[in-house]
Amino acid sequence: MGKIRIDYERYRVPDKGAFSLSSISPDDDQGIDKASARKRVKKNLDDLQGFQERLYAENKQSLLMVLQAMDTGGKDSTIRKVANDLNPQGCRVTGFKVPSAEELSHDFLWRVHDHAPPAGHIGIFNRSHYEDVLVVRVHNIAPQTLIEKRYRHINDFERLLHDHGTRVIKIMLHISKEFQLTRLRRRLERPDKHWKFNPSDLKERKLWPRYMEAYEAMLNRCSTEYAPWFVIPAEQRWFRDLVVSDLLVDTLQRMDPQYPEPAFDVREFPPESLK
Ligand code: AMP
Ligand code: MG
């Protein structure tokens, strides 16, 4: 198979210095050929399966992938793609919607912590605690003085997860406002996509610049060395799949999960001696 190497490090938000969304083009594809990208994604998904099995058997570390994006950014289809071949027993996807009255009566991380992946598992967040510094900031749902403190609360929370063996990677699927328009139109053109259209998405769309400002603020304040943010060009879906799957495979490779040593002396149990 042709070896293609993509560079996802260019999409990492540095933990120091000023990052601007305008530095990453939402339709970037690094000039990669689509057919070889697809082949490589397939190989990545196979590799992921192997890593997941070892992660589960090892039962010590876990991986959390946080996905954020504007409406139509492709969170659902990214999850469908990368989680499709995973063993459901060791993988949990959690979607975060408008908080319930009970959830709102607690601190904003209360509902999130419960869904952090336990040892051996892969967790995927479709939206996350970051909504509490995105939509909440754009709509002034909480006092700005409190939202201001949340960046630190989030960094401390992710540090806690990290210290307990959870590798956290955070992905913003990056699209342009023009691209969103084509996707929203498509949702209205196709009856099988109507369920995905919500008239309130148009209200959020009008607030695009304020959302981008909120995204930039949180990217600059919450990309850490232990829980980095990646801003991934997401207009070419096949390229997005390639970058996300490469990132997952490399992360798991670095985590290097191992099958545990058997808790018995294997020599005492020659397979042919079993009755
Ligand atoms: P969807 O992902 O399209 O099903 O929509 C879920 C909606 O829930 C989005 O509009 C989010 O902005 C909203 N949402 C998620 N978390 C929160 C939160 N903490 N506070 C307010 N709205 C939220
Ligand atoms: Mg929606």
Which helices and strands occur, and which strands form pairs?
Layout lengths: L33 H25 L3 E8 L5 H9 L7 E5 L5 H4 L5 H4 L8 E5 L8 H4 L5 H20 L2 E9 L2 H13 L10 H7 L1 H15 L6 E5 L3 H19 L20
Parallel strand pairs: 1-3, 1-4, 2-3, 4-5
Helix pairs in contact: 1-10
Adenosine monophosphate binds next to helix 5.
In short:
The protein is of the alpha/beta class and 275 residues long. It contains ten helices and five strands.
Which terms summarize this structure?
44% helix, alpha/beta, binds adenosine monophosphate, globular, single chain, binds magnesium ion, Rossmann fold, 12% strand, five-stranded parallel β-sheet
- Calculate the mean pLDDT score and round it: 96
**Could you name the ranges where pLDDT drops below 50 across 5 or more consecutive residues?**
none
Helix segment tally: 10
CATH class: Alpha Beta
Bound chemical compounds? adenosine monophosphate, magnesium ion
Q: List the strand order in the largest sheet.
A: 2-3-1-4-5
CATH superfamily: P-loop containing nucleotide triphosphate hydrolases
Please indicate the percent range of residues in DSSP E strands (runs of 2 or more): 5-15%
Major β-sheet annotation: 5 strands, parallel
Number of domains: 1
As for the CATH topology, it is Rossmann fold
Any guess at the CATH architecture? Answer: 3-Layer(aba) Sandwich
Number-wise, the strands total 5
- What level of helicity do the residues show? 40-55%
Terminal CA distance: 45 Å
Provide the structure class: alpha/beta
Could you say which overall geometry the principal axes of the C-alpha atoms support? globular
